[in-house]
Amino acid sequence: MEKADTVLDVTQLEVRFRIEEGDLPAVNGVDFSLRRGSTLALVGESGCGKSVTSLAIMRLINPPGRIAGGSIRIQPSGRDTIDITALSEKDDLLYSVRCGMIGMIFQEPMTALSPVHTIGNQICEAILLHCNVNEKTAQERAIAMLDNVGISNAAQRMRQYPHELSGGLRQRVVIAMALAAEPEILIADEPTTALDVTIQAQILQLLKELQQKTGVSILFITHDLGVVAQVADDVAVMYMGRIAEYGPVRNVLKNPRHPYTRALLQSLPALHRRGERLASIPGRVPSLANVPEGCSFHPRCQYAEQKLCDIPPAPQLQQAAEEHSTACLRWQDVFAEKTQ
Amino acid sequence: MTQPTETAPLLEIKTLTKHFPVYRQGLVRREIGRVRAVDNVSFNLYPGETLGLVGESGCGKTTTGRTILRALTPSSGEVWFNSADTRTNLAGLESKQLKPLRRQMQMIFQDPFSSLNPRMTIGDIVGEPLRIHRMARGAVLRAQVAEMLHRVGLNPEHASRYPHAFSGGQRQRVGIARALVMRPQLVIADEAVSALDVSVQAQIINLLEELQTEFNLTLLFIAHDISVVRHMCDRIAVMYAGKIVELAKTDELFENPCHPYTRLLLSAVPLPDPDKKMHFPAKGQVVDLSRLPTGCAFHPRCIHCKENCRTYTPDLYDHEGRQVACHLYAEQDQF
Ligand SMILES: Nc1ncnc2c1ncn2[C@@H]1O[C@H](COP(=O)(O)OP(=O)(O)OP(=O)(O)O)[C@@H](O)[C@H]1O
Ligand SMILES: Nc1ncnc2c1ncn2[C@@H]1O[C@H](COP(=O)(O)OP(=O)(O)OP(=O)(O)O)[C@@H](O)[C@H]1O
Ligand SMILES: [Mg+2]
Ligand SMILES: [Mg+2]
User: Fold this and answer.
1) Closest residue (by CA) to atom 27 of ligand 2?
2) How large a percentage of chain A has pLDDT more than 70?
3) Pocket flag, ligand 2, residue B35 (CB < 6 Å)
4) Which residue's CA is the closest to the ligand 2 atom numbered 25?
5) Global confidence as pTM
């Protein structure tokens, strides 16, 4: 991967929450990079650290949480690299990162919208905040923005309140707001999870069109491997705060090189015949207060080998194919076995 | 379950309707409209089969399930329950008369977090239906509870713990144990696996399938995840705006969806294969059940919409061994 092509680069990111049960490593040494103009999907089951990773990129981790290590660098076009982790809270640059360079669609669409203001006011406010324009221009831009995300009668819709809109329309408004400042990076945290499939398909299509039009780079967070297959160029599979596998979407979904990814794929009903027993992963995700030593997946892994997978340090990503890496120490044995 | 239509149905639902009145706010409460949550729904459930009920959020799936079990009183229609040698219309019964029938019909709910009473132990939660229906007590009850917990993959010592100590998948097992401890004939599973992660979802789906064979359950499986329904169900009913728009055997529905809404729905499902690109549907919005369009409720989103679709509501027509509510499949002479 060409460094020059990278717009967001996360290295060895560590986010911890100090609570009663201990100092929980919610994100535990994460590496990935987002290529300019492309879509990277961050997938994994509930609690694996997807949202915390995205909040860290926006520097929105609040106590009892903290960024405990690693770096997050962005490379806006025509500017110097910015190390987000190194910025002080009062730095103007941090402000322009949050309110300009990176747009974010939060997991809960209703929390992003105020119930007491019209959607027009909310989008205008977002535009006025980061763009140096007067109110009239902001108004026009807001209408264009709503139009852009496929909302008909935009001028009329501006006067409506969030509760008057359907879930699909509300999500479009949230996308419009995230794009209001024309960010180079869009972080979309489960933007379609609460929507019906037909509406989800519309939103996914919309994001694709916007990407083609504006070249925005997208970090797409989801737990749905179907959505990943449809939207992503690259994918990073997370398990217990670490990246298990990382690479181009076709390689990862068709030739997984980590037992966790393979098990996830095998548990999907869509890939089984009717009535056929689904594969499922034995046991459950351990608590972050007791992260297993070595590979954190080893207690549930059918290929785990004693004295290899269960001893520290945690395995780092290693290359399994071109641009495709896995954190499984036994990937060569495991996946050779499969082709026999 | 092979040929459901050859045996007598366990449940016959005829023109079932449930409307919720919408009131004007203010001093004088006045009905200003109705949410047609379930509108003229008819279908049969055959013993031992799994019938899927799919459709988008708010189309009336939960209301259908709750009205069948009489957790809600139907506005009109009949629900015939055929058990052994008796035939009863659940829709016409008083709640006292319903009680003995209730133990034969149970519901599993979507949310494993809010559907369990946090102040009761798992053992009490699972044993409660037995106690309410006076079917067991004391050591017998405890033994039955322990056996049921074992069946759903929980340990006997879990009986003394409280729900908060369990993961989502474990709580869903508790919900299943509670529904099955009465050995019901009919179970309505309302989004029973929707809140779970795929790996846990797979465990619960496998469990439900095992238990279904073991107890010869008849299952109405409500879900919005079409790949789960495809995996689980013998037949599928597709619901749109309070009505069933298509009902067919699972394989036939997927091989050849007939109703334009079914086609839209199936084409919008993202498959976990980057080489099978999904079809991106045109614009369109979810319908508002209190302000339904005239004629076929789907007509504003339908690419085949013709003049009569705006005026006449299509009946559920028989078409090549399935049922479809679309004018495309009506007999020519009906217009
Ligand atoms: N404020 C907090 N205090 C303590 N722990 C936290 C806090 N926020 C997050 N965590 C923990 O960090 C871990 C990662 O959470 P995160 O929200 O990133 O998960 P996720 O992958 O986004 O899951 P989901 O798919 O459910 O959204 C979880 O175990 C969570 O309990
Ligand atoms: N008690 C009630 N009073 C008024 N309206 C109701 C009531 N219960 C449900 N509704 C309405 O009836 C319609 C159908 O709701 P229902 O819960 O059956 O939908 P659903 O298909 O189960 O949706 P979901 O997939 O979101 O669970 C909705 O418009 C809902 O707002
Ligand atoms: Mg999250
Ligand atoms: Mg429901």
Assistant:
1) B57
2) 96
3) yes
4) B57
5) 0.91
List the strands of the sheet with B50-54, edge to edge: B105-108, B186-190, B218-222, B50-54, B235-240, B243-249, B322-324, B317-319
Instruction: Return the residue whose CA atom lies nearest to atom 10 of ligand 1.
Output: A26
The 10s digit of each residue's pLDDT in B42-97 is 999 999 999 999 998 889 999 999 999 999 999 999 999 998 788 999 998 988 88
Asked whether the beta carbons of B83 and B185 are under 8 A apart, the reply is: yes
pLDDT digits (tens, 9 = 90+) for B136-175: 889 999 999 999 998 888 888 889 999 888 878 888 889 9
A200 to chain B, any CB pair closer than 8 A? The answer is yes
Q: Is the CB of B57 under 6 A from ligand 2?
A: yes
Contact between B209 and A275 using a beta-carbon 8 Å cutoff: yes
A75: confidence class by pLDDT, cuts 50, 70, 90: very high
Whether A252 and chain B come into contact, CB under 8 Å, resolves to no
Of A200, A224, A279, the CB nearest to B202: A279
Domain boundaries, chain A: 115-182, 254-339
Q: Which residue of A has its CA nearest to B277?
A: A230
A223 vs B contacts (CB less than 8 Å): 197-198
- 8 Å CB contact of A228 and B272: yes
End-to-end CA distance of chain A: 32
Q: Which of A249, A265, A267, A273 to mutate to test the interface with B (most CBs of B within 10 A)?
A: A267
DSSP state of A216: -
From A158's Cα to the closest Cα of chain B, the distance in A is 18
The answer to whether the complex's ipTM is over 0.90 is: no
Q: What are the strands of the beta sheet with A102-105, ordered from one edge? A: A102-105, A185-189, A217-222, A39-43, A234-239, A242-248, A324-326, A318-321
Cα–Cα dist B46/B4, whole Å: 6
Q: Give me the domains of chain B, ranges plus CATH numbers.
A: 11-330 (3.40.50.300)
Angle between helix B122-132 and helix B138-151 axes, rounded to 10 deg: 120
CB A24 within 8 A of CB A14: no
Q: How far apart are CA B242 and CA B64, in angstroms?
A: 9
Ligand 1 contacts (CB < 6 A) are A 17, 19, 24, 26, 44, 46-52, 64-65, 107, 223, 288
Tell me the pLDDT tens digit for each residue of B190-218.
998 888 888 888 988 999 999 899 989 99
Exposed e or buried b for every residue in A251-269, given b needs 16+ CB within 10 A?
bbbeebbbbbbbbbbbbbb
SS3 A26: strand
Contacts of A154 in chain B (CB under 8 A): none
Q: Rounded to whole angstroms, what are the CA distances from B251 to A277, B247, B256?
A: 18, 12, 8
Query: Which atom of ligand 1 has the smallest separation from the CA of A52?
Result: 18
Q: Which secondary structure element, helix H or strand E, spans residue B110, and what is its range?
A: none
Q: Determine the pLDDT at residue B333.
A: 42
Q: What is the dihedral of CA B252, B254, B258, B261, to 10 degrees?
A: 150
Q: Kindly report which listed range (A184-198, A316-330, B252-266) carries the lowest average pLDDT score.
A: A184-198
